[in-house]
Amino acid sequence: AIAGKTAARAALLVGQDKASLVQETTEESHGDFVVNQLASSQKKLMSIAQRLQGKLTQSQDAEKASKQMQAAQIEAQALKVERDLLRKQLKNAQDDARLAKEESLRAIEAAQTAKASMEEAEKQKEIAQKVANEKVESMRLEKETAEKSALESVARVKKA
């Protein structure tokens, strides 16, 4: 009986040792499992963090590109406004040049008309001068004729 009790105790002790060993092994395995899970989770989190960092960089790059595009659009709009202003200025300059040309042509026409009028007046003056000279000559001849006639009349009267 003592041997049975001792064997039972030994078996119990061996069983407890085995149970303790199994428990320790299970705890170690569970601990290793938890550590492995944590390591795996950490790797996944690092991978996610890297992807998020990449997406953040892409997002920042996209935002930067968007700002550059907006700046380019604003510059393009400013250039369009400047181009439109230059077109208006060119049109105004062309209109001014056309008006100046028309005014110059009118001035040339007026000068030509004045020149023609002066030439016509000069011709009229020459004609009037000729007519006056002819009239003076005619009057001188009439005077001479009248004087001759008068002298002849006086001479006839004296003879008679």
Describe this structure in words.
It is a single chain. This protein has 160 residues and is mainly alpha-helical. The protein is built from one helix and no strands. It has one helix spanning 2-159. The longest helix is centred in the middle third of the chain and has 158 residues, at 2-159. The protein is rod-shaped. The mean pLDDT is 84.
Strand content: under 5%
Shape: rod-shaped
* Number of DSSP helical runs: 1
Mean pLDDT: 84
Chain-wise SSE layout:
Blueprint: H1 2-159
From the structure above, extract its key features.
mainly alpha, 160 residues
Question: Could you provide a short overview of the structure?
Answer:
This protein is 99% helix and 0% strand. It is an all-alpha fold. The mean pLDDT is 84.
